[in-house]
Amino acid sequence: MRLLIAEDTPSDRLILANLIKRLGHEVILAVDGKEAVEQFIEHSPDIVLLDVMMPFKHGTQVAKEIRQIAGEDLVPIIFLTSLNEASDLAECLEAGGDDFLSKPYNTVIIKAKIMAFSRMRRLHKEIQGQREHLVQEQIAAKGIFDKIAHYGVLNSPNIRYLISPKAIFNGDVVLAARHPNGDLLVLLGDFTGHGLPAAIGALPLAEVFHGMVSKGFALEDVLREVNAKLKSILPVGVFCCATAAHLGFRNRSIEVWAGGLPEGVIYNTRNKSVKKIHSQHLPLGILSAAQFKYQPVYFEMDNDDVIYLWSDGIIETVNAQQEMFGFERLLNVFTQSCNANTVFDEILQHVDDFAVEGTEQADDHTLIAVKMQDAPSMALKQALLVKPKVVHRGLADCTMTCELGVESLKSFDPVPLVTHLIFQIMGLKPYVNTLNTILAELYSNALEHGLLHLDSALKNSAQGFAKYYALRHERLTELTEGFIRFDIKHEPTDNGGRLTLQVTDSGQGFQVAQTNLVNENQNSLINYHGRGIRLIETLCQRLEFIPPGNSVIVEFNWSWL
Amino acid sequence: MAVLTASSADGSELIIKIKGRFDFSTHQEFRNAYEQAPQEMSCYVVDLKDATYLDSSALGMLLLLRDHAGGDSSQVKIVNCNADVKKILSISNFEQLFTII
Fold first, then answer.
1. Which residues 6+ apart lie within 8 Å of B82 measured at CB?
2. Which residues contact A45 (CB under 8 A, 6 or more apart)?
């Protein structure tokens, strides 16, 4: 061991130095407080023995400086004193000393104290090492975690988000994934607790979410699967409060499922009004698959409207008076903002100003904002980003038929399945967005108009919009007969192929020509119906309704990219 | 003590009282409260009259109690919630799982 002795009385210094040398330790000497600090920096001793009254620098000041220099290392400081009053001795400890030695020195006591402090140092070093090891492990694991939990399309230009972790790992999850038709699905989740146990649940959640959304599954299917997965793997008492939303860029609507998070909002950036999103469900991972409920709410969203979601950390930020920031203050940021584009930063600024300065944030602060934007351009950009892969094996010339009866229609979305079938055809992968859009539009036309006789004019108003989806659910539940059939045919051509899709329903058909005509005369921005068909027309080479309108044929010619 | 327990006169009901913050620090005490009950209880009452705050780990603990009490067939009442506590319970829609009075 290396000991620093700082003592201004030469005789005392000599006696103590000899005593300690005899015990087998290395000794460094300092004659005053100033030199003590210098010697400490130069030799970094293991234990420091300090006289209280020294020239140039008082012992307590030296102790303070040494503590600062040592940082996280434990350097025991023992004050040397001729005082014997209990109150004087206590003062030494209050001034930052770990112990004291009274004069005259006693070899047995000095030996025992050095032993005790060296034991303490060893323990401290061990803990330091273990902690470092733990942090290293966590950093490595976090690298993997971030890749799984936060990849996806969070960096899209219409998304802003913030995750500020309380620990290295975080109980909060933010996910965004692009549906094959160009729509965006986002999820903000908050697992019970913090740190590693909370983060572990985020991994399966992210895997299921990204995997299913990219395959074209609907929000309901994704959440049912996530819930079932979390329920089966998480212990009772650990669950995930979440809000998930499907932003439909083509019909400018949003479908939201909320379970357990504080109210989010949909922000109208023109008139600065907000619509609240109430939590109506239990969090994910509590109910069994059979008990899980999916009762989403639908909102219309104009271009530039923004959905804001947050975890409870923001709302529960407290000020010096232990008041919470709360939902009302948050709402005021929206309604009082001068510039809708800076609301995201304003929220953070307000929360920051509100919080007690210098205090550690009590919970994870997580915030995401997603803006509704014109879809076709975005979907197209996304499609161009998909690099074509030359596939050497797969389907080429083939026909497939898939017919769904009533029971299937009630509980099964065939679009992902049929999309998947089509992608077994060589060379079609790059067209994933386009084909999924075509299939989804044809299928919803066949189901909603052909079988359920829903009037798309309902979707012209905000109330009608919600009513439309309520009616859709009601009529589908009551459906007793009917079918929808997909006939798929593919023929290879010299530079690609020709895909023919026919979708037929058992309904009575409808007046296609007239529907289209009416729409042409109306403002397409406020008219949500009929757009699907026109969109398909722009995406394929031929679209033909077979009278009486219950069957439609689409021809899609493609070439190798 | 932040967690106090008492049985009803006929011994069929266990009352668990929480004082102060109901969060992770209460975990062990809360668990002990129902696991060390002298006999099988048919009904559990969580009294939050003196609870000032409830966080998500408290919600998790309530789920653990519900599981212990028999899951879907359990009888767990949460009583005397103040407005803040009630709000937290209702955001998570816990009234679907518990009787909240």
1. B48, B51, B52
2. A2, A3, A4, A28, A39, A75
Gap between the Cα atoms of A29 and A27, Å rounded: 7
* Residues A541, A528: Cα–Cα separation, whole Å: 23
CATH class, domain A386-559, is alpha beta
- Every domain range in chain A assigned CATH 3.30.565.10: 386-559
Check if A281 contacts B (Cβ < 8 Å). yes
SS3 sequence of A89-135: HHHHHHCCCCEEEECCCCHHHHHHHHHHHHHHHHHHHHHHHHHHHHH
Q: Which of left, alpha, beta for A20 (phi over 0: left; psi -120 to 50: alpha)?
A: alpha
Give the pLDDT mean for A493-509: 89
What is the rounded distance in angstroms from the CA atom of residue A409 to the CA atom of residue A413?
7
CB atoms within 10 A of CB A393: 7
Least confident span in A98-107, A333-342, A373-382, A435-444: A373-382
The DSSP letter of residue A263 is: P
Please state which of the four CATH numbers 3.60.40.10, 3.20.20.450, 3.40.50.12100, 3.40.50.300 is assigned to the domain occupying A150-374: 3.60.40.10
Q: Is the pLDDT of residue A484 over 80?
A: yes
Point out the residue among B24, B64, B96 whose CB comes nearest to the CB of A282: B96
Q: Which CATH number fits domain A2-126: 3.40.50.720, 2.60.40.10, 3.40.50.2300, 2.40.50.180?
A: 3.40.50.2300
Residue B67: its chain A contacts at CB < 8 A? 236-237
Q: Is A280 on the interface with B (CB under 8 A)?
A: yes
Q: How many CB atoms lie within 10 A of CB A505?
A: 25
Q: Is the ipTM of this complex over 0.90?
A: no
Query: With contact defined as beta carbons under 8 Å apart, do A518 and A524 qualify?
Result: no
Chain B residues 27-66 with CB within 8 Å of chain A: 56-57, 59-61, 63-64
The length of chain A, given as a count of residues: 561
Tell me the pLDDT tens digit for each residue of A14-58: 988 998 898 889 999 988 888 889 999 999 899 999 988 787 887
Q: Give the type of residue at B49.
A: K
Dist CA A443 CA A435 (whole Å): 12
Residue A180 reports pLDDT greater than 90: no
CA angle, residues A6, A12, A14, in degrees to nearest 5: 85
Q: Is B93 on the interface with A (CB under 8 A)?
A: yes
Per the CB < 8 A criterion, the answer to whether B21 and B48 are in contact is: no
Give the residue with greater pLDDT, B40 vs A337. Answer: A337
Residue A282 contacts B where some CB pair is shorter than 8 Å: yes
Nearest to A180 by CA among A368, A371, A374, A386: A386
User: Across the interface, do A282 and B61 touch by the CB < 8 Å criterion?
Assistant: no
Residue A357's SS3 state is: coil
Domain B3-100: give its CATH superfamily.
Answer: STAS domain (3.30.750.24)
CA A220 centroid distance within chain:
19
Residue A242 distance to chain B (closest CA, Å): 10
Domain ranges across chain B: 3-100
3-state secondary structure of A440: helix
Tokens of A25: 């330790």
